[in-house]
Amino acid sequence: MLTGSADEFAAAGLASGTRVQVYRGTMTDQSPADLGWVPEACTLPTAEKPLRLAEFDALFAVSVRAAERLGPQHLRLTLAGELGLVDSVRDLTDRETQCCSFFAFTVDTMQPGLVRLDVEVPAGQAEVLDAIQDRAAQMRSES
What does the pLDDT average to over 64-82? Predict the structure, then answer.
């Protein structure tokens, strides 16, 4: 479970006390272009993609403190939050590799409440990594 104050959730556009983004229309109104960095290779059912994207948006908006590109195929995110953050990140990344098996996620606890998330992709998916980095920066700046 992601943790944060009610104000942090509201700033991230999330329903109170949840990881789900508040939508004005129905979530199925989103076209593939509206799904941001979701790669074409993703096998997650179409109806679930907006929910997963909202989970990553919430993580990025509330927890990202730094993003460092270690190479064209390697992004490192530093995340900060409460003690349960590492479990939430592991859960989310485990589920993500089930539908997008090309991702390699490494989750490390740097110290209590501080998590390092390394995201690696094969050369053919480098554009997806670019989009994730851009999305993390966008969500962080909007929070």
Answer: 96
